[in-house]
Structures are given as structure tokens and as C-alpha cells.
Write a structure and sequence with these properties.
Length: about 475
């Protein structure tokens, strides 16, 4: 048994001074003045005790443009844990030859032996026919209750509106949740081919050919299709202020729409695409303007956006040069693959380890959000929406002992020295942070102790999630 003494225990609703008793993998008791003979005592002296973070949007070991995202299901999990996150959810690409269950098995095969924290999957529905529709219910047996669809990436990942409607309708019948990548594929394809024909190949054209209005319109369109299917919908990686406005509008009309945004859309703008190292910021959807940053912050403050995820999908900036990772030299082709052609730059950014640290300093530390909103946005809401609550997302009796001890006073200049993402850069390099994970427990087991890694490959568990969508 482990007894965490003298902590300030934070939930999505309240903060209380309390002790937490852990018995094996579970929380046994929470309350003031707890005692247990023989328990290992950890006195945290007033530091904060929060549920382990849940990041419902990562892409680990994802093949893209002739390479793979540079964190796999071990290194990405380790980086997550160092940043206070104990559960991640990854997206299974659809392999048409294998079908849905075959694709899931393939992804499990990659992940299971490596997993260092608990994890779950969403299924990408990037093609729809009778066979796929017939297989969707079988995902429930695998514990997969969420389907991602795309309104962009024509001829690759996109479904048309009628197909999105069909997926939403089926998901509703089955108690599943559809997640939407909301951009306008037709306009993007047109603009990209016109840009290339005109010889525009610089990274700024990645942003110019994926206009913000396309995302705004696609959020509204997605929620309107959800209304017609009478189904809930979750919009992923929201990048525009207008998208937040559309989500608010839909929710006010009674549509069961929810959304997430990610650190990159709060901290960076299109100006990053003019930097010398601009390819580091190439992701889809791209960063927009300062007013978008501001509106997205406001949406978090006002509980208009429910989840703070990352879309963690890291690539090396220069994959021709190796870095040292756990004592080994490693180089993975990355952003340099797109030198001279923005359409070939692997899309995606690191962030799984940065997420909670950045939101704490610049959200809680500035008074924009409360510590309770922080817990809701980084853990509890995702647990509820994605069917993991009450086992995860809250420190309560009977829950998994996924516990984060947070030192609100620790100050440092953040960057690659502190983040454990397996890549050669950190987007927040040099930014001051105040508030940092001190200890991280996964189901009662210490994974991170200060700067020390205590976790192991294979100790993370695949989480079969329950069906039924909790609307927040
Ligand atoms: O650029 C990104 N976000 N890559 C990951 C794929 C996606 O659409 O989420
Ligand atoms: Zn996406
Ligand atoms: Zn993504």
C-alpha cells in the first residue's frame, strides 16, 4: 500500500486537502488524516495531487510520406508519462486488405509489447462500403467505441457527406462516437494543385492552401450532419476561432457536439511558416492567427471546448542526423523529406509530453482557467466522453490509481532538455514554465520520479472502452 499524505487533491469540481491511500492498482481511500499501518508514506507537503492526464489524440509509429512518426508506443508513452499523462488514445489506420478488425489487430501487435502507459484506440473509417459497415459493430467487442472520419484528404482518407451521415447514423445506433477531422477537402485539393502549378513550394503554402474558412465551414457542416443523423459528434484538433464559434452555435441549438483543441493552436500562428525552420510547424490543420489563438483560449475558459489533447505526431526536423535515445543513436527520416515541396513534408508535431506543462503555466498560471478546469480539460472530460470514467479521470475510491503529483512552484526554461519525445526539437524551447510533474503513478506503480524513469515496456494495458457517449 502507498499513502500519499498532505496533498491538495484536485478534481474537475473541487480542490481539497486530503490523503490518498493506494492498494495495489486502485485508490482505496481519499480523505483527511488517513493512516495505514505498513503503508509506504509519501508526504507531498501541500503539493497538488491530480488524476493522471488522458490525451485522446496521438499518432504513434504512424506511417506517413515514406517515413513514420518518430515516437512509437514505448517512446511516446514514456514522453507522455514524463508530462503527467497516463493514458493515450491512438488512431488505427484502415488497411483495406485487412478490414477493421484486422487493422486493429495489426495496431495492437505493434503497441501491446511496447506500451508503457495505458492506451486505447479509435478506428479511422476512411473508406465505406457494406463490408466496412457490417464490421463496425464488431469493434465494440474489441473495446473500440470511436470512429474517426475526415472531410479532407480527398481520394485518401475522406468520406463524402453522405458517407459521414451514414457513419454517424450507425454510430448512434451502436452507442459509438464519431470524431471528425473538419477541413474542406475539395478546396484544399484545388488550391494545392494551383499552388504547385504556380511554383509555390515553400511551407507557408501549406497554410495558404488549407484556409481557415474551410475548417470553420466544415465544423458547422459536421455538426449539421450530426444533427440530421441525431448523433453526437466530437470535432478533433480545432484550430480556428470561427470553428469554436460554430461549435458554440451548434451546442446552443441542442446538437450533441463536442470538441478538442491542442497546444499548437494556442501558442503558435501562421507566422511560424515563415521561419527558417518552418517545416517543424507543418501539421494539419495548420496554425492560424493571433485572434484564433485568443478565441480558442476563451473557448477553453468558457467550457465551450471540452478537451485539451495534442494530436501528437512527431517527426525529426532533420532526420539525417541522429539523436541519442536511451543510450542509442537513432535517426528517422522526417521533415527534410519535404525540402522543396511543402506537400511532401510529413504532417504533424510533437506535444504529448508538453501538453499539461504548457496549459498549467499559461492557463492556470495566468488565471485564465482554474486548476479544476485544468483537470477537466486534461483528464476527466476525456475519461467521460471516451467511456473510461469512473476507472480513469478522477481520484476516487475504486478508481485506477493513476496519480500525478504536481509541483506548482518548480520553474524552468522548458525545452528538449526536459521533454522526452523522441525527436530532435521541442516547439516550446526556451519558454518559461512554472509547475511541473513530480511523480507519476500508473495503476499504483511509480513511473516517473522527478527526472527518473521507472516505467517499462509492456506495463501499459490496452483499455477496452464501454459504449455509450457521455455528453459534456
Ligand atoms: O498533421 C497532423 N495532424 N497529422 C496527423 C493526422 C491527423 O489528421 O490528425
Ligand atoms: Zn485529423
Ligand atoms: Zn490526428
Amino acid at each position: 500500500m502507498i499513502l500519499i499524505k498532505n496533498g491538495k487533491v484536485i478534481s474537475a469540481e473541487k480542490s481539497v486537502m486530503a490523503d490518498v491511500l493506494i492498494d495495489g492498482e486502485k485508490v482505496k481511500a481519499v480523505g483527511p488524516g488517513l493512516d495505514h499501518v505498513g503503508a509506504e508514506i509519501i508526504d507531498v507537503g501541500g503539493k497538488l495531487v491530480m488524476p493522471g492526464g488522458i490525451d485522446p489524440h496521438t499518432h504513434l509509429d504512424l506511417p506517413m510520406f515514406g517515413t513514420v512518426s518518430s515516437d512509437d508506443h514505448y517512446t511516446g508513452h514514456k514522453a507522455a508519462a514524463f508530462g503527467g499523462t497516463t493514458t493515450v488514445m491512438d488512431f488505427v489506420p484502415l488497411d483495406k486488405e485487412l478490414g477493421l478488425i484486422g487493422s486493429v489487430n495489426k495496431w495492437r501487435h505493434k503497441a501491446d509489447e511496447k506500451a508503457a502507459i495505458d492506451f486505447s484506440f479509435h478506428m479511422n473509417i476512411t473508406h465505406l462500403d457494406d463490408q466496412i459497415s457490417a464490421e463496425i459493430p464488431k469493434l465494440l467487442d474489441e473495446g473500440i467505441t470511436t470512429l474517426k472520419v475526415f472531410s479532407a484528404y480527398n481520394d485518401r482518407l475522406r468520406l463524402d457527406d453522405g458517407e459521414i451521415y451514414k457513419v454517424l447514423r450507425q454510430a448512434k445506433e451502436l452507442g459509438m462516437l464519431v470524431m471528425l477531422h473538419a477541413e474542406n477537402g475539395d478546396i484544399i485539393e484545388t488550391m494545392v494543385s494551383e499552388a504547385l502549378s504556380a511554383g509555390h513550394t515553400d511551407p507557408i503554402w501549406h497554410a495558404k492552401t488549407r484556409p481557415g474558412w474551410g475548417a470553420v465551414e466544415a465544423v458547422l457542416r459536421g455538426t449539421a450532419i450530426a444533427a440530421q443523423a441525431e448523433a453526437p459528434l466530437y470535432i478533433v484538433h480545432m484550430n480556428t476561432g470561427g470553428g469554436a464559434d460554430m461549435l458554440k452555435y451548434a451546442r446552443e441549438k441542442g446538437i450533441l457536439a463536442m470538441g478538442e483543441t491542442c497546444p499548437q493552436y494556442l501558442f503558435f500562428t501562421e507566422d511560424e511558416y515563415l521561419r527558417e525552420d518552418s517545416s517543424k510547424w507543418v501539421c494539419s490543420p495548420p496554425m492560424r492567427g493571433k485572434s484564433d489563438n485568443e478565441r480558442l483560449w476563451q473557448a477553453l475558459e468558457n467550457d465551450e471546448i471540452q478537451v485539451f489533447s495534442t494530436d501528437h505526431c512527431p517527426f525529426f526536423y532533420d532526420g539525417t542526423k541522429s539523436i541519442s535515445y536511451e543510450g542509442e543513436d537513432i535517426a528517422i527520416p522526417g521533415k527534410e523529406l519535404g525540402d522543396g515541396d511543402f506537400t511532401k513534408i510529413p504532417n504533424g508535431l510533437p506535444g504529448v509530453g508538453d501538453r499539461m506543462i504548457m496549459l498549467w503555466t499559461y492557463g492556470v498560471g495566468t488565471g485564465r482557467i482554474s486548476e479544476n478546469q485544468f483537470v477537466a480539460l486534461t483528464s476527466t472530460n476525456a475519461a467521460r466522453i471516451f467511456g473510461l470514467h469512473p476507472d480513469k479521470g478522477e481520484i476516487r475510491v475504486g478508481a485506477d490509481a493513476d496519480i500525478l503529483i504536481w509541483d506548482p512552484e518548480r520553474e524552468l526554461d522548458y525545452g528538449i532538455e526536459y521533454s522526452h519525445q523522441r525527436t530532435d526539437h521541442n516547439l516550446y524551447e526556451g519558454m518559461k514554465v512554472r509547475g511541473f510533474p513530480e511523480k507519476v503513478f500508473l495503476r499504483g506503480r511509480l513511473l516517473v520520479d522527478g527526472d527518473d524513469w521507472k516505467g517499462a515496456r509492456g506495463s501499459g494495458k490496452f483499455l477496452k472502452r464501454k459504449r455509450g457517449v457521455e455528453f459534456i
